[in-house]
User: Fold these one by one.
Assistant:
Number 1:
Amino acid sequence: MTTPVRTIDSRRSGLLLVGAMAALMWVSEAVDAVVGRLDALGIEPRTADGLWGVPFAPFLHAGFGHLIANTVPFLVLGAIVALSGLRRVLLVTVVVALISGLGTWLFAPEGTLHVGASGVVFGYAAYLIARGLFDRRWYYLLTGLVVALVQGGSLLLGLLPRDGISWQGHLFGALGGLLAARLLARRTG
């Protein structure tokens, strides 16, 4: 059984991880603004070098406006996931980032470059919505309902194909969130 102190430490560590990832996004964008070459490390569909973008793309953005648009939902949704502990937020992030990145690499148009944390944001939102359904606990259901009410419209719009938006990253991020919720569901019975 987990002790309360251990749970608090794990939550604190999870929150620190989310904060550190956001800080890395800002540092990367600042370096990119000066050097101008980091975005080339994004996901370039169906190229060998483009696979390197799968782990790097969430930390790269197409300018500070793009970064600002992703930072607030990343921090809020990531913090909610992190309240379940370091292990949980780490596993959800890895599953979501991998599914989002690989789905983008496989299905986005050739000759495009994909950067940004929005795939992870969509994954966090989908995870939080689906977790209540899989875990069947009232507080997760309530959290999922609130996330759906607050983020629902932008989630649906972000999944629609539009020029200049990596909707593939959004779609596969959301699918990664669903998969993470299913894989990490506590078995009750």
Number 2:
Amino acid sequence: MRTAIISGASSGMGREFVRMTAQRGDVDEIWVIARREERLAELATEVSVPLHILPLDLMKEESYEKYQAELERKNPNVVFLVNASGFGKFGRYDEIPLEDSLNMIELNCKSMVHMTALTLPYMHEGSHIVQVDSLSAFQPVPYISIYGATKAFVLSYARSLNVELQPRNIKVMAFCPGWVKTEFFDHAWQTSKTAVTYYNKLFTAEEVVRVAMKDSAKGKDVCVPGFGVKMQVLMTKLLPHKVIMDIWMKQQKHK
């Protein structure tokens, strides 16, 4: 049975990945992972492919034990893995509680590595992995410093793992969108609504995930949706990061 596994599936880009994966027509079932079981149950009524609902909190070690046990029990042929769990917080270094900062590292980085490592033994030639990343991966981002640093980790991890998996012909792609209208902002604004106020463009989850699906199928190692966002990435390669951060600070009206 050809299986897709998507974490962070209850909302935002993760939810959109479920919808679009179901439309591909080449998977027999989708495992959906998130804390909110009721949201996953709702999603099951929206897609034609059977969903295997796993209400897991990836901040808890026992969730990985349950996930590993389920993999061993069902022995799926995983053709598509999307790690979309994660969150961010806006604010100055002393506005974001230390616990929140450590939890960002836990979910955005450690969870992704854990999920990938447990799933890889069940993936075979021609399979694809999408690690949901961010434009923030390409530069230091004041007032989103921890979140940006976790996304820099994801970019490096995804690109290097893609090379390591070449002998197995498994493709890994870092998916790096700009600002996307999702519940991300509900969490990010909890610590500060003034630290980040300028958003050059807001994409919909549908817009960016559609590009990610196409680029993953092409075997790309990095996906950056949108011409304007691509130009921002290019600037981070051409200009010193100090200059890039100065521009960011002026955009956000910070001295």
